[in-house]
Amino acid sequence: MSDMNAATVTRYRDDFLKEVEANVEEGDWVKMCMQCGVCSGSCPLGPHWEHPPQELFMMIRANKREEVLSSASMWYCTSCYNCLVRCPREVPITHIMHGLAHYAERLGLAPKELPTRKFSKIFWKNLSSSGHANETSLALKLYFMNGFGEGIKKAIEMLPVGLGMLRAKRMNPFGLFAHKGCTDKKGLNAILDKAREIELAKAAKYQA
Amino acid sequence: MSDDKKYGAYICTGCGLGERLDSTAQTNVASRDGKMGVVREHGFLCNAEGVQLIRDDLASGEVSHVVIAACSRRAKTEAFAFDDVAMARANLREGVIWSQPDGDEARETTQEMAEDYVRMACAEIKFMATPQGDPVSDTSRRILVVGGGVSGMTSALETARAGYDVTIVEKSATLGGHAATLQTRIPQQAPYREPEPSGVDELIAAIEAEARIEVRLNAALTSTDGAPGRFEVEIGTESGSTASERFGAIVMATGYTDYDMANLPELGAGKSPDVVDQAGFEALVKAADGGPIQCPTNGREAKHVVFVQCAGQRSDQEGHLPYCSGHCCLTSIRQAMHAQEAGASATVLFSDLRTPGAAGEDFYRAGQECGVTFCKGTVSEVLPGDDDLEVRYNDLILDEQTSLRADLVVLATGMVPNSGVDIDTIAAEENEEADGVAAGAEGTAQENTVTIPVESILNLKYRQGPDVPQLKHGFADSHFICFPYESRRTGIYPTGPVRRPMDMQQAQEDATGAALKAIQAVEGAALGRAAHPRSGDLSFPSFRKEGCTQCKRCTVECPFGAIDEDEQSYPLFNSSRCRRCGTCMGACPVRVISFENYSVETVGQQLKIVEIPDEFEEKPRVLILACENDAYPALDMAGMTGQHYSPYVRIIPVRCLGSVNLIWVTDALNNGYDGVLLMGCKKGDNYQCHFVKGSELAHERISKVDETLKTLSLEPERVLTHEVAITDIQRIPEIINDYMKTIEKIGLSPFKF
What we know:
By secondary structure, chain A is an all-alpha fold. Chain A folds into two domains: 2-111, Fumarate Reductase Iron-sulfur Protein, Chain B, domain 2; 115-195, no CATH class. Chain A is 58% helix and 0% strand. Chain B has five domains: 1-130, Lumazine/riboflavin synthase (Rossmann fold), CATH 3.40.50; 143-257 and 418-434 and 452-527, FAD/NAD(P)-binding domain; 260-413, FAD/NAD(P)-binding domain; 542-594, Alpha-Beta Plaits, CATH 3.30.70; 598-753, Rossmann fold (3-Layer(aba) Sandwich). In chain B, a hairpin with a 5-residue loop joins strand 10 (219-225) and strand 11 (231-237). In chain B, helix 5 (104-125) runs antiparallel to helix 15 (600-609), helix 8 runs parallel beside helix 9 (328-341) and helix 15 (600-609) packs parallel to helix 17 (662-670). Chain B is elongated, with a radius of gyration of 31 Å. The interface between A and B is medium-sized, with 12 and 14 residues.
């Protein structure tokens, strides 16, 4: 990962905007931002972001590569789509935020301790291994995301909810072990491998 | 003469007037108090039968002067249109029954109001005559266009195509002006994605092909005199020869000068040849001829071009332009696209990117799409380095001081209008000199202000100065909202960037408008008709020479420079320059100026005839002099929308508050009115006054009344001035009713007999 980072740095020494355009989902929209700030004002979590979207776009144009890619800001996006709906330039801001986060992750620059990052990784692993999300397993993994003690505490806290779900037959405790997943797991894995291959090949093009 | 006058009053009982008012009493008032020879009632005066009733009386010679007691003078003007007949209207509908509550309690005061208005109309008509008009006898229909740029050429073409002969006078050796130096222009057609050819060559070709257009290059106006329909213009050429020509109207399309970037050393101007203004960049693009753009210093390729927006404009710093020039953002986008095309990377540093006009946002988007970088920041400094320039700026989004390197910096400086001499400054300087103040102070005051080459453009031989008056920042003054082309010199129409900053497309639209106004002025002058806002008015001011004291106040105060002076300092009225506001009449201390149908008497007699109840009746009387342009329609509309105001007011419309002669105020107070309210348009820099200065002058005059009131031991609240807009329909009854409370507080006037 860090090799890839080193390569891209050389390639885009002076033009982070071009790098974003080439590698980030919907990245070619970044140049269309007109700096009105409606996105930052619309974001329900805006006040908590270190750099709201308007600022991130400006930082991209100002070649602040390290700051942008190691920023926690875009990881705060909850995909509420307020910004995307309101942007007068119709910039797909939500997609770009996730695109940036994903690109940072690929380069190994994303901050490690972010709960949203952890969640994303757990969720993807859970989903991609069987093709269907195993909810019981996912919940347990999330409980213990921050260590064993925290996990026990969280489980006790959620006990009444869990019992209620059992009674209402909304949860099957055996699903943890007997999760079926999709019928053609092999096929699914082949698709995902192919997708990864395409994406890496695309990124590799810019690593020369 | 008075024997020839035969008066007839027609009282309408339609629209509920008959039910609400006692028409028999009105008939009695008209015949007994008003001394009307013929008084007739009709149930529907504005229908064919009612109008025929009046026409029959006029035809039989029984009546020559008509009083109509019905609706507002602003209503039913088509029905009550009698040629060559003087007419006064008593506003009983909007002004009385619609603005007063219905019911037994109000019946008496409403009737009093109606009877007073009938009396007033009868008093007014006695001093009215039909305006005869003062047409310019041998009107020239030829139009003079000063300036051969895009605005001037467009104006000339439009005028010629409408069937009028045109002469273009252009100072330089070629047509085209600034536009001729441009490689391309901001697109004027959808999809607004690419710069367009400037179109100047086509314009010039069209001008040359048009038989009605005569072009004089290397020429300027050395003298302009006369009035609409008969401007006598001397056109001087470079060789020194002059030619006298006669024109009907003048379009002043003198354009702008680029702001001198030498005033911006902090932005590197003058320190490095690689800092250019937009015109300079245009020349570089032209020199590159499709190849890479070369830096002026050493001819190296300009790889990074930085555009600095708002250079020396939108700034309150001395020597900078305080306004936005409107076209520079789009021009920079256009030029940045040229730079990108030539293989350079372009960055635009802006604080607010303003892209008005048709191309607007689409062109901005196109610029972004082709890779121009837009950065919101304000540039503090441009420093020349060894082999490039450092642009230091404050990034407004990231809130940090930062800098970038550039090979070429383009400063988007603004437009300075070529409006000639600021006649107000000249007047002020003359006053200063007269006071002996200016002698030593020279230079200090002017050091940091924008220096514009001040050479008169029109060389007007008017008493008021050689050029059209300016409003702010050197732009020609005109009523911005209602009649933008009418300058304060009738028949002279500033257009294009001399009027306000604008781009080429706006200038072309503007020039078309000015062409039409010029044609209107010529045709109006031939018929003796006024221009806006009293368009079509045939009346014009005249004065009684025996009474005149040659005080010159009328010539000084006329907002339109319509009055000159003869050798003995008597006023010389130029009726086709006149807008008929009556400001001269209001200014005249000896009251010798009058119009045929509007004079000190027509209003003075009205206010004197109102019955003033004695102090024991506890019915105050307040005179309202309301400007007919905004305040009077607002009062009418208050009535139409069923809003009620005090029955103790008597309203007289005036042409402009500027026409209010102080004798009316004095007479009103002497006659026992408890208060006088003046309602006019907004004054000042953002004025709404239809006659530009009328309202301001009225405020000035009234402010001096306070002293007089004190000497008469009257409260200053007895005479108040209000600024009222036509939209103040709700506010206007409030003003009146609040004022009645004030009168209640200070008590009735001690001057009641």
